[in-house]
Recover the amino acids of this structure.
């Protein structure tokens, strides 16, 4: 609506209508909420502070020296079992490696 | 090689020997102590990535994620002291990472999570007073020439995959089994106060917002979005921006006078 097919020009009336709608949809509470909040330091997201371990606290589990980066036997897991996978025989991701189903 | 460079290289490469010049205060084996330090460096950076990319970790499982992240850490150690910026190119790494290729949407999920972290730390800019736009509404003939500036926290992602739904399913707001990952979606990331929001938008909305960011007028940006999709809904799109206080400044473009 309000656009001419050939030039695709948006009319002033259409812009005014859209902006009016937007103002009505978004009215009031947001700015009030933003003004009431304040920035709080010292509550950075986990792992975002300068030292994840913290001074003097040697991390638990540090005795395992390394991750084995060269063995790739892991299979993606987690929510993967519920995530649709077109190549999987079950139609979803699996915790064990599977033979891919050929897609026709 | 200077000893500091050797130390750093050995820190990131487990195949390298402990730097030769290292000594310990109590005569214990420097190699064992160095290995502990090496592991702490690695695991704290992997932890930082896990905190920034929680949904990527859930999609892969912790063991897979940590092994993949460790390879990334060794290949791309931090360039600045600001850990929040670490992982800016993690998504690109994931995209090229063959063992994760069975989840082709993973890189875009990482891009979305990266936009969220970026939004969280972006500079504060006060939203435009709504009276300014109400005043603009009183002069409809000039609306075409309105320029809108958007908050620095705003991020956009156009994906060939259902990034927004995949992300939402991991926040408990959608059933993951109902998500078809192969449906293209666009994401709008905004910060409302201190709350980072992810909103699923149409590709035409995304194009409109990019046009505003590029300095196009309201009229011009709306026309581009309409050209992509006649169903483009300017009102809803602007409402998303206004609701989160994402419009920060406005001006009229005087170079483009009305005829």
């Amino acid at each position: 609506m309000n656009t001419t097919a050939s030039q695709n020009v948006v009319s002033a009336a259409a812009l005014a209508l859209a902006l009016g709608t937007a103002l009505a949809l978004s009215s009031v509470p947001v700015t009030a909420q933003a003004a009431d909040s304040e920035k709080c330091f010292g509550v950075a997201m986990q792992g975002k502070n300068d030292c994840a371990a913290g001074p003097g606290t040697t991390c638990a589990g540090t005795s395992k020296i390394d991750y084995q980066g060269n063995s790739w036997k892991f299979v993606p897991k987690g929510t993967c079992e519920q995530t649709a996978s077109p190549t999987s025989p079950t139609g979803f991701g699996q915790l064990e490696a599977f033979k891919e189903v050929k897609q026709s | 090689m200077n000893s500091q460079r050797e130390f750093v290289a050995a820190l990131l490469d487990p195949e390298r020997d402990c730097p030769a010049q290292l000594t310990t205060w109590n005569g214990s084996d420097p190699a064992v102590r160095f290995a502990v330090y090496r592991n702490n460096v690695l695991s704290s950076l992997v932890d930082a990535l896990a905190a920034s990319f929680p949904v990527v970790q859930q999609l892969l499982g912790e063991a897979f994620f940590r092994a993949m992240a460790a390879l990334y850490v060794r290949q791309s150690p931090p360039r600045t002291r600001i850990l929040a910026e670490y992982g800016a190119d993690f998504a690109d790494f994931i995209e090229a990472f063959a063992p994760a290729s069975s989840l082709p949407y993973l890189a875009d999920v990482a891009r979305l999570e990266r936009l969220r972290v970026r939004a969280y730390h972006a500079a504060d800019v006060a939203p435009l007073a709504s009276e300014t736009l109400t005043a603009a509404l009183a002069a409809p003939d000039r609306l075409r020439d309105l320029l809108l500036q958007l908050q620095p926290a705003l991020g956009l992602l156009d994906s060939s995959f259902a990034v927004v739904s995949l992300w939402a399913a991991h926040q408990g707001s959608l059933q993951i089994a109902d998500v078809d990952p192969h449906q293209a979606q666009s994401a709008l990331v905004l910060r409302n106060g201190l709350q980072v929001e992810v909103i699923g938008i149409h590709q035409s909305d995304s194009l409109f917002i990019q046009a505003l960011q590029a300095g196009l007028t309201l009229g011009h940006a709306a026309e581009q979005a309409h050209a992509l999709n006649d169903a483009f809904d300017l009102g809803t799109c602007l409402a998303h921006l206004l609701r989160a206080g994402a419009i920060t400044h406005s001006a009229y473009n005087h170079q483009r006078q009305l005829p």
User: Anything to note?
Assistant: Chain B touches chain A through 80 residues (CB under 8 Å). The two ends of chain B are 69 Å apart (CA to CA).
